[in-house]
Amino acid sequence: MRHLITNACVLTVNASDEVFSPGYVLIEGERIAAVGPMSACPHGAFDLTTDAEGGFIAPGLINLHEHDYMHMMKGIAEGLLLEPWSRQVSSRSREAMEGADFVAAMRIGALEMLRTGTTTALLHPARASLELDVDGPLPPNSDLGLRQVHGIAYQIRTPVLADHPFGPAEAAENLALLAERFSRGPGQMNLAATMIECNAHHTAAGRSSDELVISGHKAASDLGLRIASHVSGGTLSMAMGFLKYKRVTGRSDVEYLDRLGVLDDSWLLIHGIHFTDQDIAIVRDRGASVVYTPTSEAIRAGGIGPWVQMLGEGIVCALGTDGPAVDYSMDMVEQMKAVVLFQNLRHRSPTALSPREALRMGTINGARALGIESWLGSIEPGKRADLVLYRRERSSQRLATDPIAAFVMASNGTDARLVLVNGRPAYDDGRFTAGIDPALIVAEARERADAINTRSGLISRAEPVWPQNAA
């Protein structure tokens, strides 16, 4: 299949951040064959030609932190800080969910991400979601066209979880089994990672331990898996959040990992909004990556992290959307804009973080954090053809002189017109090409969410929090 896309504003995100406007992209099979200015556009016979009509073509966006199960909790977290939300809402909702609920939530999340141009997502599940049937030929949602990095929780017995069935040997065996099953299928559409919770909150609650972190790191290293972990997030409070646990333990989450001797380039440190200068230096020296979820941090008043400083130290910084129960948005274009706005605000400088850097955080940096930048994350010959064509019809997009700024600051994810994954359309001009009816999936999810809220005793939180005008 030879597919030629013409008359586009091509945002390559290559090493030189080249922009071809107007430009073309030639796709052959699952790979990008050529890219360049229209003056060098090839001629000949093609199976398909698409006129971009001046629209943006960007690499498929990479969402490195997404709690897919939380789609069933939308609207019940209003007005709560992270810690009370976790205790009062999240844990109760998870306990009330069944296997089919997790699958339905994953489908909703996949559709929302594809609709807005995300083509790769690291899914950070609840532990219970690992009870999904993984004995089939392919992992759940493989039919939708989203490239999935399946997070696999690593858990062993701790003093609080004394009845857990796994010690380190059994947990390592289970991780290897699930990693193989979750990596099935052609075209590198399904990948695996592991989740190791190690922050002071989890340690203080007895859900993590030195033994868990050390053995989990070894198991992941033996399998060549990336490790994702929540660190240095939450409310900046002595009473219930980050500062409370730092005061009790006398160390930060980064210092803890470093003292255990496990921090290396396999770690994806999620949140990091309360990193200190010492934390940043350790992360830099150990080669770990950090993932920012800007709108999620903002909506729950967590904080604005030191991302300009981390980028300046050469740390790989990527983006994610976090949990849709906390922040409704799955739009990675919105995350790119938000990181620019929030960093400029933090530093009181209109040039603190550029749209160009934000675009890299949403694309190639995500690929680098996953260790797959050789075949994903930018528009370059030989890489997999994960591409998104965005409409460029509004004056705010057309009149801006810098095309990267016009895309990041004046576009929305819903401007996506064509979403290609491995060169095949997953979303095409309002239609999901997997042959599914989004309305039916949403209706099923709505019904399941109501049932979950009822079983969990949280149905009252599904009522509007803010005053409503009388009809």
Automatic annotation (TrEMBL):
InterPro entries for the chain: Amidohydro-rel, Metal-dep_hydrolase_composite, Metal_Hydrolase, MTA/SAH_deaminase
Domain Amidohydrolase-related: 56-424
Cited SUPFAM superfamilies: Composite domain of metallo-dependent hydrolases, Metallo-dependent hydrolases
Keywords assigned: Hydrolase
Listed GO MF terms: hydrolase activity, acting on carbon-nitrogen (but not peptide) bonds
Keyword Hydrolase among UniProt keywords: yes
Family: Belongs to the metallo-dependent hydrolases superfamily. ATZ/TRZ family.
Protein name: 5-methylthioadenosine/S-adenosylhomocysteine deaminase
Originating species: Devosia enhydra
